[in-house]
Amino acid sequence: MSDNSLKQATIYVVATPIGNLEDISQRALRILSEVDFILSEDTRVTRKLLSSFNISGKKLISYQDYNEENKKDSILSKIKDESLYVALVSDAGTPCISDPGYRLIDTARTLGINVIPIPGPCAAVSLVSVSGLPSDRFTFVGFLSLKQSVRLNEFKLWSTGGSFLFYETAKRILKTLTEISSIIPECTVCVGKELTKYYETTLRSSISEILTTLKEMDQSSTLKGEFCVMVYVPPQVQTFNQEDIIEECKQRLQKESIKDILESFSKYPVSRKTLYKLLLDIKNNKI
Ligand code: SAM
């Protein structure tokens, strides 16, 4: 191999296309052809990818999560002891980005195995690049929790402002964006559907407009495929000392009970307990 590795045991972490085969890099193809074997998330998927590029006869070993722990140590010892060159790939995109593999890389590093990135496609980064949303700083959260309470807490954290990015399925996207809209109605959203593929679509709009479009797609059975979502929340008031929150609470207290206002506490960038104390202070004329 002509890379910098100088016959040292090496794992190349190779990014592969997320839909369009033309996105594979020349370097990725060379590495995949030259390595001693390929550590693969799903050997059937990798075999298909290799055959698209006429790479045949490669030994593939699965490292999926369920067998990663069992196989990890013996595979890594072999790589180290025999100074092998190995590639690690996932089914699509950049390995270890919402994909398994990091534990293997972690142990490889501990053992002193060289680890080299072969950069390339990644759905999240692709979406950021075309979103036109503030991207000097963003938070990637991968797949959201399946537990609604955990998700809602996550969205409350976002409500103070910033750019957030997550992966989502066609089945859940409407529900997730409806939840976000109830907590952060003022956000702007960019949805990437089937990026780099035939039915590639990117939508960018206010969350209410995005929901309308996605509902129409759902009704026409076109809400299908793989999705990545970026949410931009304009910077919000950070603390309950802000005059506008206090003013709003004062006005609401003239017509509503503390209990009723607390029902909508998620609207405010403070915890329920903090809002309760604030409302009590207003009620008792301390503020
Ligand atoms: N490691 C991959 C990467 O670098 O993008 C991500 C793997 S993760 C298991 C798969 C998820 O990424 C999908 O469920 C979807 O949310 C998102 N994704 C993958 N390919 C996509 C595409 N072409 N367009 C939009 N989202 C995609």
How many beta-strand segments?
Answer: 10
Number of continuous helical runs: 11
Strand order of the largest sheet: 3-2-4-1-5
Q: Identify low-pLDDT runs.
A: none
The name of the CATH superfamily of the largest domain reads Tetrapyrrole methylase, N-terminal domain
Q: How many structural domains does the protein architecture include?
A: 3
Main beta sheet, described?
5 strands, parallel
Evaluate the radius of gyration: 24 Å
Q: Give the SSE order as H and E letters.
A: EHEHEHEHEHEHEHEEHEHHH
**Main structural class:** alpha/beta
Q: Can you give keywords for this protein?
A:
Methyltransferase, Cobalt-precorrin-4 Transmethylase, Domain 2, five-stranded mixed beta sheet, 19% strand, five-stranded parallel beta sheet, binds S-adenosylmethionine, 287 residues, single chain, Cobalt-precorrin-4 Transmethylase, domain 1, alpha/beta, 3 domains
Note down, in words, how this protein is organized:
This protein is α/β, with parallel strands linked by helices and 287 residues long. It folds into three domains: 10-121, Cobalt-precorrin-4 Transmethylase, domain 1 (3-Layer(aba) Sandwich); 124-233, Tetrapyrrole methylase, C-terminal domain (Methyltransferase, Cobalt-precorrin-4 Transmethylase, Domain 2), CATH 3.30.950; 242-283. The chain contains eleven helices and ten strands. It has helices at 26-34, 43-52, 65-81, 102-110, 123-131, 148-158, 173-183, 207-219, 243-255, 258-263, 272-283; strands at residues 10-14, 37-40, 60-62, 85-89, 114-118, 139-143, 162-169, 188-193, 201-206, 226-233. The strands form two sheets. Strands 3-2-4-1-5 form a five-stranded parallel sheet, with helices on both faces. The longest helix is centred in the first third of the chain and has 17 residues, at 65-81. It is elongated and about 75 Å long. The N and C termini lie far apart (71 Å). 30% of the residues are buried. S-adenosylmethionine (SAM) binds at residues 18-19, 90, 92-94, 97-99, 122-124, 167-168, 192, 194-197, 226-228. Residues 18-19, 90, 92-94, 97-99, 122-124, 167-168, 192, 194-197, 226-228 line the site of S-adenosylmethionine.
